[in-house]
Amino acid sequence: MTQFSRMPWALASTVAAIALMLSACGKGQQAAAPTPDTAAVPPVAIVNGTPITRTEFDVYAKSLQQGRQQQTELTPEQKAQVLDEMITMQLVSAQGVKDGVEKDPDVAARLDMVRMRILAEAESQKYLKGKEPTDAELHAEYDSAIGAMDKTEYHARHILVASKEQAEALIKKIKGGAKFEDVAKAESTDNSKTSGGDLGWFTLARMVKPFGDAIRGLKKGEMTQEPVQTQFGWHIIKLEDTRDVTPPPFEQVKAQVTNGAIQKKLQAYVEELKKSAKIEKKM
Known about the structure:
There is one protein chain. It contains eleven helices and six strands. The model is unreliable at 1-18 and 28-32 (pLDDT under 50). It has a four-stranded antiparallel β-sheet with strand order 4-3-6-5. Strands 1-2 form a two-stranded antiparallel sheet. It is elongated. It has helices at residues 3-6, 14-27, 36-39, 54-63, 76-99, 105-128, 135-148, 164-175, 180-187, 209-216, 254-275; strands spanning 45-47, 50-52, 152-161, 198-202, 228-230, 233-244. By secondary structure, the protein is α+β, with helices and mostly antiparallel strands. 51% of the residues lie in helices and 13% in strands.
């Protein structure tokens, strides 16, 4: 194992790595003619006549720190390791060009997908530049989210079994005096069985619709009188309690609200592109 691979900050981006390999494949075996922008900036390395540019180095180095809350300046040792990694990629990818691996259908499709993704991300960033949400837009987004959120949390228990007949038999058993918690521990197939079927506190948005609808129709202490079917099986549900949900203050969720507003702007842009596009789905 190399020192590079042991470094905790080295969270390599597969997309960035493939993108650099795509770039390397495009360079071929001869050195690319420098453009006016790149001629003034010396390459960080030249491999068999093919330069690795400073921009490529910076992009790849940045990708290695993706996922970290705070990006830091690389040490000289780390920079050297990044450069060695890029030299290796250039050597191997150039050999791949010689061997014709880019003609393999799977490889070609992966390279096309990487290119498509990078271009789409770049265009999205370009479109959003200068379109930061205003305070009025953020507060409107916040008010809309608060209006749509569940205002009640529920505390419930359930018993999950495989068949309606088994659920009906257990309901009869509980009505006959058996404790719900004891039956859950003995019969439920859900992980919550160890705690007597206790699901803790939750909003209905977290539950599948049949389960949520059943909960909504119960009063505190009540149990469903008929089994409730979901994609997970058959449930017997008991509502323990309810409580009101206090919405988080605006400042606490401003980052999420901002992201939501930006995503809406981008989605609106995408929908406009779709309107003027000719799209034929084949599957």
